[in-house]
Task: inverse folding
């Protein structure tokens, strides 16, 4: 396992269509995060999972967005009825959280991202 | 709310030293991260500070002052490949995600 992988790397869709992205985290990592990044901005947090449980969702995550991590391994992010404003890079990150303490061992490793373009 | 400020762009010369500043106002603090991001690529981890002081890692160093809500990333012996965006991110106490600044785009010129 060489890192976090995401599929597809690029997606072009028409407004109103549904899209689904996949993230495969580093295998031993128990936490998985989704972020969205637009041009010239830093990543913005969307949601995160501890194993299979979705523990937190940002207000950015409208009801058109849904994320799952059914077996605590890979995750999917689905956007329904896409809008042009959804065009962005969707980044997945994973980390190994232990002991409830924060430290460099909680570093988040990012995947290459899925670039979504909504026409 | 959370706020992180970084300069938008910086230019420096190959072989020189550059300091990228980051100031933050957050509701609680539980660590500050610096990431490097080349255009079209994923952010990669550079450094982490949770206590005041300087952390050195090869050509890169990061400093934190919690009382001032201030950090900087110091890059020495700049190389052309250091041209990238540098993202300052804070882990807010009680939260698990990272809150990122907009990033500083560094251009290294010959």
Result:
């Amino acid at each position: 396992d060489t890192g976090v992988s995401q599929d597809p790397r690029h997606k072009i869709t028409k407004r109103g269509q549904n899209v689904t992205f996949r993230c495969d985290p580093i295998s031993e990592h128990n936490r998985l995060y989704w972020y969205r990044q637009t041009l010239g901005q830093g990543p913005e947090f969307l949601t995160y999972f501890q194993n299979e449980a979705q523990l937190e969702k940002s207000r950015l995550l409208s009801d058109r967005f849904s994320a799952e991590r059914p077996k605590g391994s890979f995750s999917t992010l689905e956007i329904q009825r896409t809008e042009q404003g959804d065009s962005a890079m969707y980044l997945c990150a994973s980390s190994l959280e232990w002991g409830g303490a924060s430290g460099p061992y909680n570093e988040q490793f990012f995947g290459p991202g899925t670039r979504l373009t909504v026409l | 709310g959370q706020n992180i400020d970084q300069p938008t762009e910086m230019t420096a010369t190959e072989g020189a030293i550059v300091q990228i500043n980051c100031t933050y106002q957050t509701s609680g603090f539980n660590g500050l991260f610096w990431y490097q991001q080349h255009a079209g690529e994923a952010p990669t981890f550079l450094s982490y500070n949770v206590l005041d002081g300087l952390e050195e890692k090869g050509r890169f160093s990061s400093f934190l002052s919690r009382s001032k809500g201030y950090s900087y990333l110091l890059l020495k012996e700049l190389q052309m490949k250091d041209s990238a965006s540098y993202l300052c991110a804070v882990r807010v106490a009680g939260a698990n995600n990272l809150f990122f600044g907009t990033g500083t785009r560094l251009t290294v010129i010959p």
